[in-house]
Design a protein that fits this description.
globular, metalloprotease
Length: 225
């Protein structure tokens, strides 16, 4: 009997992996790897607060998160709102900013919610010094994190920086040429910009991404059963 259960679980796991690959998603959990060194992180597609926009890096980060969430959601298909879990253990200096950023997003969108956890997380925050500033990074295979740079968070509004980087987890790319009213314009409008909230278009895009992406994921899982 136990052998039969194991076989069923194995089949389900394989189906989920196939689902992730079919959707072009990474198939491993986030939050397990951080910035080991500047050399390591430089190899990863990254989306930063100031710099050249990297839409591919943002999408890879979002896809990696969604792959993990899809596995969890497939076990509870009746859930209407997706919860993405984050860990702040490696960024103790930014606990307040991270909490504020999560609250901002939770009050701005309805199809996905952010929640802190001390256990297994979908992604993690890290802090430290990096000449590139703050950024969201992924290796494209499910390992990703948000890095918050000390100097940049003193120069720019820290909650805006954190909310901006968290936007990458939710699927938004950088758009540095945008106005201050656009959260994903990041540091483009300059240090005087203190807007911490996504605009209507950004809110709509995140809701659309999570509603459509997860619906397709669950549909594929149900079809494979």
């Amino acid at each position: 009997m136990s052998s039969c259960r194991l076989s069923t679980r194995t089949k389900n796991s394989r189906r989920l992996v196939a689902l992730a690959l079919g959707l072009g998603l990474a198939s491993a959990a986030l939050g397990t790897a951080g910035p080991a060194s500047a050399q390591d992180t430089a190899k990863s597609p990254a989306a930063g607060y100031v710099g050249k926009a990297d839409g591919a890096g943002s999408k890879a980060f979002f896809d990696a998160v969604l792959a993990k969430v899809a596995e969890r959601q497939a076990e509870h298909p009746s859930l209407k709102v997706v919860t993405v879990y984050y860990n702040v253990g490696q960024a103790p200096s930014f606990r307040s900013q991270i909490s504020s950023a999560a609250s901002i997003w939770n009050s701005s969108v309805s199809n996905v919610k952010l929640a802190a956890t001390s256990g297994g997380a979908d992604f993690s925050y890290y802090e430290g010094n990096d000449s590139r500033g703050s950024y969201a990074s992924t290796d494209g295979h499910g390992s990703g994190y948000i890095f918050l740079d000390y100097a940049q968070n003193r120069q720019y509004d820290s909650i805006r920086v954190t909310a901006h980087e968290t936007g990458h987890v939710l699927g938004l790319p950088d758009h540095y040429s945008g106005p201050c009213s656009e959260l994903m314009s990041g540091g483009g409008p300059g240090t005087s910009c203190t807007n911490r909230y996504p605009n209507a278009a950004e809110r709509s895009r995140v809701n659309q991404l999570w509603a459509n992406g997860l619906a397709k994921a669950l549909a594929k899982v149900n079809a494979a059963r």
